[in-house]
Each structure stands twice: as C-alpha cells, then as structure tokens.
Amino acid sequence: MNRRFKLTLHYDGGAFFGWQVQPGARTVQGELEAALSRLAARPVGVLGAGRTDRGVHATGQVASALMPGKWSAAEVRRALNAILPGDLWVAAAESVPLEFHARYDAQAREYEYRVGTAAESRSPFLRPYCWALGGRGAGSGGEGGLELDGGLLSAGAALLEGRHSFRAFAKAGQPGRGEECTVDLAWWEAWEAGPLFRIRANRFLHHMVRYLVGTLVEVARGRRPLEDVAGLLAGEPGLETSAPAPAEGLFLTRVYYPDTTTRRHDDATTGRLGTPANLDDDNVA
Amino acid sequence: MNRRFKLTLHYDGGAFFGWQVQPGARTVQGELEAALSRLAARPVGVLGAGRTDRGVHATGQVASALMPGKWSAAEVRRALNAILPGDLWVAAAESVPLEFHARYDAQAREYEYRVGTAAESRSPFLRPYCWALGGRGAGSGGEGGLELDGGLLSAGAALLEGRHSFRAFAKAGQPGRGEECTVDLAWWEAWEAGPLFRIRANRFLHHMVRYLVGTLVEVARGRRPLEDVAGLLAGEPGLETSAPAPAEGLFLTRVYYPDTTTRRHDDATTGRLGTPANLDDDNVA
C-alpha cells in the first residue's frame, strides 16, 4: 500500500538553481527527491505547486509525493528534516488522498516580494532576502534610504486586481497558452526595511511577480507614469515593462487548495477539482 | 595627515572564524583589514570593540582604523561596502579623534541572544540565527514548539543585574584578571520564534552570554532550580553552569562610548576616558 503526502516547504533559494530537477544542478526538487528516495529505499518523484526560479525563496511551497504506506506523516517530516540540507525544511507533512496533485489541485498561489528602501536592507541579514535599493546615498552615517511614493505603489497594485491578460508581464518566449490570470488580492504592506508586495492569483506567468514589482517600483520612483500599468494590462502596443526585480526578494508564501482535496478519506469520492487549468508552463516564478 | 574612523559593522558570523585575525582562517578583522589596506594602498590595522567568536553575529560591532587623511567618512563607507564580501557590511562610518580606541574607550557592550522555541525556528531563514529548540516534537503538522517558563527566565535575568563575579560563567582556562562585571540591564523579550535575551554590561568574559543563556534555559525547562543561578554568581563550590548555548544565536548589537571620545575636535583636549579596564582577554564572546 502506498500513501500520498502533502509537504509544506521552506527554502532559502540562494544556493539552489530553482525548484525543478536539472542534470548537474542543485535544485529543491532534486534534493527532496533524493531524500525521499533514500527514506523509501526506492525512487520517489515529487510534484511541486509552482516551479520557483533560481534564487527565489519559499515559506509555503507545497509538494506531493507517494511513499510506502508504512510511513506516517509525522515520521516522514521528522526523517526528512533529519537528512535534508539546512536550506530546505519541511514545515508540515500531511497524509492526503492518493489522487491529490500539488499543482493541478491548487486553486491559488500567494507570493510576497520584499523591496529594501532603508539603508539597512544592505545588511548581510536582509540583503539576501530583498531587492536592496537603499543605502546607495552619499551619507556617512548609514543614511541613504530611498523614497518610494507609497500612494503610487498602492494605486498600481489596485489596478492589478481582477481578471486581466498579464502577457506584457511575462518572460518573452513563453509559449502562449493563455495569459489570463485572476488576481484576487494585490497590495503593499511594510516589512522591516521597506515595502512588501503581496499578491494572490489563480495562476502566475513566468517572472510575472518580478516584472510587476520592477514596473511598480519605477512608477513609485517617478520614472514612469502610473498610466503605464493600465496600458501594459490593456496590451497597448509599444509599451514595455521595466526590468524585472531580482529573484532574491521573491517568496512563494502560500498555496491554496479546496478542503476536499486534502482531507483524508477512504471512499475515494472526491476527485481532482475542476480541469487542470495550470498547464506545464505556468506557475514558474 | 591621517584620520581615525569609527566603523559600525554588521556581519553574519556563519562563514567567519570569528573576529580576530588568524593565519589561514577567514575572519572579520582579516577581511576588513584587507579591504582597508587595499583602499589606503598601505597596510591598515583594525581594532574591534569586542572579539566575537566563531559563528557569532553582529549588528553593532565597532572598529577603529587609521586611514590617509584624504578619505572622508562617507567615502570610506561607500568604498568599503563596494569591495567587502556580502556577509560583512559597514552600517556607518564616522571621523573621530585620532586617540579614539574602539576597545578601551567602550563603556558598555550589548548582546542579544535568540532562542527559538517555535517549530519555525528550524526554518532556513531563522535557524542560522538562533538556538533552534522547537520543532523536535512528534507532531506531523509542523507543531512541536517547546515551552519555556517565562517567569523563570525573567527571574533568572533579574538576578544578573548589578556587579557580580561571573567567573562561573566564563570559559575554563581563561586568565584570571578579575571576573567582576557590572550588568546594567538584562531581560527577556520576544522575537518572532521565541524568547530573546538582551544584556548590557561594562565587560563580558569569554563565552559569558552563552553560558548564561544555556543555564537560564535549563532553569526555564525545569531541569535545574532557579537557585542555581544565584549559587553560581555567589561562587558556590561544586556548582557548574549548563552547557553554553550555541554561537549562532548570539549577536553583538551595540557598543557604547562617551560622547566626548567620538566627537570630532581639533584641540585634542579630550583623551581616552578612564583607565583601560578592558584588558586583552576580556570581551571575547
């Protein structure tokens, strides 16, 4: 008998070449598959809810794997954490129905992006986890914070909510299997060294959050008009995004599933919900 | 003409063999001296307020160095941050009187120690910066936090304030040049994954904060009586501390100087304050 586990993962993306297995590169999926295979004493594959790019972090990535039935969720979690490297941690493990699929069953994903405007964003404790824009000034005493217009940040985020084509905010060369995304929530809040962008959507295109943040920050620095955000969403010809914000500020923080897909049950009445709207080339951040 | 600079430093101690220059080892002092020497195009020595051990972090270490007079404080800071490795950062640079001495002039030092009792203290974002005690439980869902008795932590900290011999809380084999320290402040507060110990004193003995935290945590886990703390301070025979808490939870957060030692002035009327009470073997954490 086999058992399906849902794993909630934290990882520091700094030393990974992203989520997805690649020959010769250290990846999150690769480390996780190696550890699970060692525990199961057989090859174990892992599916992730979203494929984070090189350097992107996670505090809520979700993965699923099929393990021998003798393992309990608590045992899987403990055993994994005992052998995984320090930059990858299993925050939670749950036993879920065998048909649970980490990517197809996901209803929404949430990311946060930390922008560092305070000089201290360049501290070794913060710089690996944000886009450090502060501290480039001429001040001798550690000053040199960057001012971003908070009103423009908020106004830009508000434009994103709802259903739009995010084609302009996707990495060029991405196969065009539909660029419509429904953004449930998008706002800016504060973290210790500047503003933090939080966005939840049913799906994300490749580099979408980084293009959004790169563009919103340029607007908030007064380097381009707010109207450009609406223009980009409307597909206005000739309009381009700003450069994408760097990977190190981006965190996959949560993946949402319908209760019924994760609740353990033995009558197998609950199948996958809906059709697999999340195709292979989506949800790469 | 030369100019003396006071540098306030942040460093992630994880990849350093401590503060002090050692042949063949990567140290904070070594990296800083190499960078300053490169900028000055001559050998530059650096003095630190306290010698942090291998693995100990800082968000307020202070160092002093003599540089060619053509450099301004702002230029030194910018140029250093451009060439220093990412785990060492100059938060501030100030021009100070030539006689300023980072160690002898320091009146007090402040450390914080982060204990991780929540399961999340084992996350890759927190574990390198705390003593991760949570998350060892059997829970499958990420639970497994450790309970510490907050009343006992507070009561233990309160015993430390004032002037005491901290001989029992110093690494064995340390030359006995007096073990009296005056603790101005000692308390526990909260950080995101558990309790945080903060202590300010005129001087610290080798490993003193780590022995204090190791012992107070054992008291708060109910493994030894609170009376042991008083007994250790009183030099009760046969009584020993608990094992020292690990280096990765410890941060040197601030060094205090009298205003007059750091204020720039050209009449050279203000010498070093008091006698050098901080001898060579002190203030190693």
Shape label of chain A: globular
Name the quaternary structure.
homodimer
Main beta-sheet strand count, sense and barrel state of chain A: 10 strands, mixed
The gyration radius over C-alpha positions of chain A equals 20 Å
Q: Bin the strand percentage of chain A.
A: 25-35%
Report the span from N to C terminus of chain A: 35 Å
The greatest interface here is: A-B, 37 and 37 residues
Alpha-beta content class of chain A: alpha+beta
Average pLDDT figure of chain A: 89
The tally of beta strands of chain A, per DSSP, is 10
Describe this entry's structure for a reader.
The structure is a homodimer of 285-residue chains. Chain A has 285 residues and is of the alpha+beta class. Chain A has helices at 28-40, 73-83, 150-160, 208-220, 227-233, 259-262; strands at 2-11, 46-48, 57-68, 88-96, 108-116, 131-132, 162-165, 180-191, 194-201, 250-256. In chain A, strands 1, 2, 3, 4, 5, 6, 7, 8, 9 and 10 form a 10-stranded mixed beta sheet that branches. In chain A, helix 1 (28-40) packs across helix 2 (73-83) and helix 3 (150-160) packs antiparallel against helix 4. The longest helix of chain A has 13 residues, at 28-40. Residues 138-142 and 265-281 of chain A have low confidence and may be disordered. Chain A binds chain B through residues 8, 10-12, 57, 59, 72-74, 76-78, 81, 86-89, 91-95, 119-120, 122-125, 127-129, 135, 138-142, and chain B through 8, 10-12, 57, 59, 72-74, 76-78, 81, 86-89, 91-95, 119-120, 122-125, 127-129, 135, 138-142.
